[in-house]
């Protein structure tokens, strides 16, 4: 989403007359990279540390209210908010985890194992992944091995990618890995079947929407967070003012 589209969408969102209703469903937030630059950059999926800190302040306040508690992805609560990060960026450990841990808020990090072994310094190293997994409140999930469009692979390729990522992560962090997010949001009915067979219990998509009664545990929609989302932006997204986007994303 470019700046012009974002501004137009924000106008539409601001005009929505929706009151927050945390009792009836859960919202799962999808973050990517958090940058220590003051201003958010041009990359839609990199949020500034300044905005992220504002988000955590808001989430911490909401956490004190019964129906908007911050809960883990595998929580059986029908209401609340869940925080997730995709890809396994190094800044998930060095920036996000520190800010979230100070407020004791739980979160899930979906890691692509090939990102970790790539040696690219923007991603967690093996040792940093182990450190992150020991941070209180963290759940490490899989984001596939090769960060590929699973919906475009043959069943045997899907099986091998997902099984490898699960085995590798479990061996490194010495904990069971039962949650997954689909790279690029790409999946189909075969991917769902294979994910279940391998032992994934909860999986997050990149479709816009709320997690409500009847949502399949392997098809949990999320709320996308973008670089322009300041505190007010997050408030709007949590209160449903951007839900019209689910027709498009
Ligand atoms: Zn990804």
Provide a descriptive summary of the structure in words:
By secondary structure, the protein is α/β, with parallel strands linked by helices. It has eight helices and nine strands. The chain has helices at residues 3-15, 49-63, 90-102, 113-117, 126-133, 155-173, 189-198, 231-238, and strands at 26-31, 33-35, 46-48, 80-87, 107-111, 138-142, 179-181, 202-208, 220-224. Strands 6-5-4-1-9-8-7 form a seven-stranded parallel sheet. The longest helix has 19 residues, at 155-173. The N and C termini lie close together (11 Å). The site of zinc ion (ZN) has 5 residues, from strand 4.
What does the secondary structure layout of this molecule look like, with pairings?
Blueprint: H1 3-15, E1 26-31, E2 33-35, E3 46-48, H2 49-63, E4 80-87, H3 90-102, E5 107-111, H4 113-117, H5 126-133, E6 138-142, H6 155-173, E7 179-181, H7 189-198, E8 202-208, E9 220-224, H8 231-238
Parallel strand pairs: 1-4, 1-9, 2-3, 4-5, 5-6, 7-8, 8-9
Helix pairs in contact: 2-3, 3-5, 6-7
Residues 86-87, 143, 147, 183 line the site of zinc ion.
* Helix/strand order, N-terminal first: HEEEHEHEHHEHEHEEH
- Which regions contain 5 or more consecutive residues with pLDDT less than 50? none
Strand order of the largest sheet: 6-5-4-1-9-8-7
Strand content: 15-25%
Largest sheet: 7 strands, parallel
Q: Total number of helical segments? A: 8
Shape verdict: globular
Can you give keywords for this protein?
globular, 8 helices, binds zinc ion, single chain, 249 residues, alpha/beta, 18% strand, TIM Barrel, two-stranded parallel ribbon
